[in-house]
Write a structure and sequence with these properties.
heterodimer; B: alpha/beta; seven-stranded mixed beta sheet; six-stranded antiparallel beta sheet; 17 strands; 17% strand
């Protein structure tokens, strides 16, 4: 059990009521390899395969609430909407109907709350935050939260994490080999790696 | 994907000496040993034949979408319940209860590679401590001393890096390789542990710290736990044993072969193994003897699927205990953040451990023992960090969430406590009565709830972890709740070994009491759980079993 399993499961359960039964129902397509999607890597500014332009605009606003722009890029600039577009056409295709329906209901709710607005993307950042808080526990938000984190930090070949902006944000330097010292606390130790071998009694 | 050109292609209608089901920690060793000893061997593996070139730093595929774990070709779901009085529910879109990799090399491909030997006490705690009412607490039919030469073979032939510690059982030979370079988590853990009077030691790992047996040293890439090694430095059987088996010219690795029935004759002997090939077509391989090494969940499943008029409760199950006494090792997780970057995403997971609490201590007031280790755990990769790495109460989205991700990723570490599991008949693997896989095979149903003593031991270790991390100067420490495990990567005890056919499934040589030409050797053979890192012992058992099976075969005793 010392594996990612238990904690990931716990995350999925705790992060929402967020995910709940709907999450379970829509995830069967996970058995389809995600790597198929990697071949469809899209350039920024290219058209979407599965999202309408309107959907992409609304999704951009939502994912930028989850990981907003500050001194570093937010989720949409990092390619998360392109990642979602690809995911919904491949390994997460089973989630598409739920997500579409959830977005539609959310849009209606938004327009009822702000009759003068053109939709979620037209609200101020603070108004958007308030609206999203009201749907924090829905499967739609849970799915978008999940996809945003995946798209922010996945391999750039999935069209998210553009120019490794997600990895830069958290300080993850992706290389294929490292030598010690690795961090602040082991810096003084290396050069004195234990010699190894046996200093123990034999049978 | 590749297969060696030296592999023979055996005809399925011609008997081979051995069929081995499963190519993982045990199956890989058995394949190498038996083919080296001159026998013809077919290994049936349900997963793909991937090699190092197929593995990638692809967290989305490997850790989120279970790319190394899912059954290729069709869905093979599982169900879970805590107690036998409940109806098990299908687990979907979450890690499966029985958590294992599919593919040549099995779970040794994706494991974290902690390689602790058992202690002498692990084999005889029932004698040392007395009975535990209502449990399957029992001695093994073999001792540490009998297994010691095979632990040494694992260390030298598979490749283990380490350095003996003050509590280790005696060893006949030094480790072949020095420990892996210590990480910041190891330095901090060592400092904190010493400050409270404990005795930390370098972690023994099945990862090469220097070139060994023609394989290269680890490059500290960090994509270790859950991933396949891209340079063959992790000592999976894919890297260490399978190539040697293939080189004999007597071993065929047959991937994408999912066994669903073991055929027996009227004399009660195994005659052939029926499986589905990569196209979903039914095939049957004839064999003189069968070895099940499919793991502690798949092995009992296959025995249940092979019921017949001779064995209505499942093959080799006259005792009625096939599938029972499942043990997974209890765990506790304690997270901490420090002022400066640790950069735990680099390098192997674990570099320092503490075994001060390995042995049972009556003063604790409950049975058990365990070990502690320092590691990044889920903070070694970005997506899981974003999903699970922040302290309780931190926003999960928005500007503050983003700031916290930026702050914590490089500053985090965890201490894991891992414990004994009391063997309970009520913790088990059975066939789900309702759910089937994509080809109509009944699904694995897991019933599991940790014993109160296991949870108490996990909590005890968490209390110590908080003390250690505090003494190490952590800026923040938080506990993950200790609760019954719902995902088990250690699948132990479900076909336990013993001298009495009424209370065990296999004898001390891994031969099924009921079926003379059936051997079972994997985590299912365990009688007790050890303290949380079982693969070293699974492989020592496999080396030992191969020696005895060879002797039986040469003497005409199979």
């Amino acid at each position: 059990m010392t594996n990612p399993g238990n904690s990931r499961r716990k995350f999925l359960k705790s992060s929402g009521s967020v995910l709940g039964a709907s999450w379970l129902a829509i995830n069967m397509p996970l058995v389809v390899s995600a790597s198929e999607a990697a071949t469809k890597n899209k350039e920024l500014g290219a058209g979407f395969e599965n999202l309408s332009l309107e959907e992409s605009v609304e999704l951009s606003a939502i994912v930028d609430q989850i990981i907003p722009v500050d001194e570093t890029p937010g989720a949409s600039e990092t390619g998360v909407v392109y990642f979602i577009d690809i995911a919904l056409g491949s390994f997460m295709s089973g989630a598409a109907p739920m997500l579409r329906q959830g977005l539609e209901e959310f849009q209606q709710k938004t327009v009822s709350a702000y009759p003068e607005s053109t939709g979620f993307s037209g609200l101020s950042f603070e108004q958007q935050t308030e609206m999203l808080k009201s749907v924090e526990d829905t499967p739609m938000f849970g799915m978008l939260h999940f996809l945003t984190l995946c798209g922010m930090f996945c391999l750039p070949s999935y069209s998210g994490n553009r120019e490794e902006a997600g990895w830069d944000l958290i300080g993850f330097d992706h290389r294929h080999a490292w030598q010690p010292p690795f961090g602040y606390y082991d810096a003084n130790v290396h050069g004195q790696v234990p010699a190894g071998g046996d200093d123990h009694e034999h049978i | 994907m590749s297969t060696s050109e030296s592999q023979p292609k055996f005809k399925i209608r011609e008997e081979v000496d051995f069929v081995i089901v499963g190519s993982g920690a045990a199956g890989g060793v058995l394949a190498r040993e038996l083919s080296t000893n001159g026998f013809s061997v077919v290994v049936l593996e349900q997963g793909l034949y991937r090699t190092a070139a197929d593995f990638k730093h692809d967290e989305l595929d490997v850790l989120i979408n279970n790319g190394l774990m899912d059954h290729p070709g069709w869905n093979d779901p599982q169900t879970f319940r805590k107690f036998e009085t409940e109806t098990a529910v299908q687990i979907q879109g979450e890690p499966p209860p029985a958590y294992y990799a599919r593919g040549v090399g099995g779970s040794s491909v994706h494991f974290t590679a902690n390689y602790w030997r058992f202690h002498q006490s692990d084999f005889k705690e029932r004698s040392l401590l007395g009975p535990m009412k209502g449990t399957g607490f029992a001695d093994w039919p073999i001792s540490y001393e009998e297994l010691e030469p095979y632990y040494t073979r694992v260390e030298w032939e598979c490749g283990v890096s380490g350095q003996p510690g003050p509590f280790d059982a005696p060893r006949s030979k030094p480790y072949p390789l020095p420990p892996m370079p210590v990480k910041s988590s190891g330095v901090l853990f060592e400092k904190g542990a010493r400050a409270i009077g404990l005795h930390p030691q370098p972690a023994p790992l099945a990862i090469l710290s220097k070139p060994h047996n023609g394989r290269p040293a680890c490059v500290n890439c960090g994509f270790c736990m859950g991933f396949g090694c891209e340079v063959n430095a992790k000592s999976s059987t894919l890297a260490s044993m399978i190539p040697l088996a293939e080189a004999t010219g007597r071993c065929e690795i047959r991937p994408l072969s999912t066994v669903f029935r073991i055929q027996t004759n009227d004399a009660g002997r195994v005659t052939e193994v029926v499986y589905l090939d990569s196209k979903g077509q039914e095939q049957a391989q004839k064999t003189r003897a069968l070895i099940l090494a499919a793991n502690g969940a798949e092995t009992p499943r296959l025995l249940f699927l092979s019921e017949s008029s001779h064995s209505p409760n499942g093959l080799a199950n006259s005792s009625g205990i096939v599938g029972k006494y499942l043990m997974g090792n209890g765990h506790s997780i304690t997270q901490a953040a420090f002022e400066h970057p640790l950069n735990e995403y680099k390098g192997v997971q674990v570099t320092r451990i503490v075994h001060d609490f390995y042995e049972n201590d009556p003063a604790r007031g409950f049975y058990g023992g365990g070990g502690m280790d320092a590691r990044p755990f889920l903070d070694s990769t970005p997506i899981l960090h974003a999903m699970t790495g922040l302290p309780p109460g931190t926003p999960t989205w928005g500007p503050e969430f983003k700031r916290m991700l930026r702050h914590y990723f490089t500053r985090k570490m965890s201490v894991l406590g891992s414990t004994t599991s009391v063997p309970l008949a009520s913790n088990n693997i059975t066939l789900d009565p309702n759910l089937k896989d994509g080809k109509g095979r009944p699904a694995i149903r897991m019933t599991y709830m940790d014993h109160a003593d296991d949870l108490a031991m996990a909590t005890f270790l968490q209390d110590r972890a908080v003390e250690v991390l505090g003494a190490a100067g952590a800026a923040e420490i938080w506990r993950e709740p200790v609760e019954g495990g719902t995902v088990q990567a250690h699948l132990l005890g479900t076909c336990r070994m013993g001298n009495d056919p009424a209370t065990s499934v296999v004898d001390k040589y891994h031969r099924a009491h009921d079926v003379p030409n059936l051997f079972i050797c994997d985590g299912s053979s365990f009688v007790s759980s050890g303290r949380g890192q079982p693969t070293m012992t699974i492989q020592a058992l496999a080396f030992r079993a191969a020696e005895h099976i060879t002797r039986f075969a040469r003497n005409g005793e199979i």
